[in-house]
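Quarterly update, task 2.4: pyridoxal-5'-phosphate-bound model.
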Amino acid sequence: MESGGVLREKEKRLRFNTKLIHGGTSPGPYGATKTPIVQASAFAYDTAEELEDIFRGRAIGQVYTRIGNPTLEMLEKRLAAVEDGIAAIVTASGMAAITTAVMAVVRSGDEVLSSSSLFGGTYSLFHDTLANFGISTHFVDPVDLAAVEDGINDKTRLIFVETIGNPKMDVPDIASFAAVAKKHGIPLMVDATVSTPYLARSKDLGADIIVHSTSKYINGTANSIGGAIIDAGSFNWQNPKFQHFEQFHRKYRSFAFTARVRKLIHKDFGACAAPLNSFLSGEGLETLALRMERHCCNAMEVARFLQAHEKVAWVNYPGLEDSPFHEVAKRQFAGRFGGLLTFGLADRATAFRVINNLRLARNLANIGDTKTLVIHPASTICADYPPEVKALMGVSEEQVRVSVGIEDIEDILEDFAAALETA
Ligand SMILES: *Cc1c(COP(=O)(O)O)cnc(C)c1O
């Protein structure tokens, strides 16, 4: 596989924190310690022969930024290293990554088996957009493994699950999903945006394809939208169910999925990442582990504080012992539980008053920033869904979602204490 995003052997041996910083770096001109931001659309060659060789795959080289770019390649190699995949492709957004990766696997008439606990955009992609192109999705409760198994039929070509449901905060047992996928010869695609590779490497849990919204914890400071597709290299695409991979498998062997994405689907859909955004997200990735450590600690403290507060009806955080997902999260994520939680007030009006009273925590539609963020999901990001879908997604009127930031915990707790006091 000659094009970008493929991992070098020596990078595979580095440890997690080292990979976050050194994975996929190439020295810049003048001894610069950063991969340059190559803000160029196209790349010139001296001779017609050279460009022909690149187009024919006989030589390595950049052609056009929609297909590849050195700055994008830095982030691709680093993400592939961090996730222990064989290659990665970065995209314009998390939704672009999910759409591109899913469309590379399925064809009209195929079925997707998906967890019903999904990010809103992914739910509408499956439920509405793909349905219009003859791809139907069978939604199952990710905790009900019997339903997962029952949901598979001879048209199923993909199993899709999120590591931590947003905003439901459920934690499916990914290894069990992987076992079902393996048994049926179907790839498992995992959206690991909320857990990040810091909580667990999805490949180790059995994911064949990993997708991320890098806009969240990977970028970490909310300055760039972006996404990534990582090929774990674990699925055998030489399979009668995937005849559309045959030409790619013949030429690119274990890189068949990456080749189909890069040379066909991603190239055609064109949802490519921007060089500046990739640079900024690469900067963010360097500090992922440090930030996640603090996000996890702070979230645990906020969860405990809210749980003890008389005005709070309930708290949903997998780190709390009373969460039905505590045991699986503890095992799967080595005792770390992420930075996201939800809590309930008496009713919607109280939830609104708490949000309006907060001074430090910002009210906006995002997660994974250094800043503490809150939102009322039922009236915003999930407002378009009918009540039964809201229920399926774990969205309720009295609920507030918190993306706990990395500020000093005392300041965060004082902010919530004051907001609840007068709510
Ligand atoms: C935000 C998010 C997405 C979509 O990512 P964008 O970068 O906003 O397109 C997908 N999945 C999850 C779990 C997310 O939180």
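Highlight for this quarter: The pocket of pyridoxal-5'-phosphate is lined by residues 93-95, 119, 121-122, 162, 166, 191, 193-194, 213, 215-216, 225, 227, 367 (CB under 6 Å).
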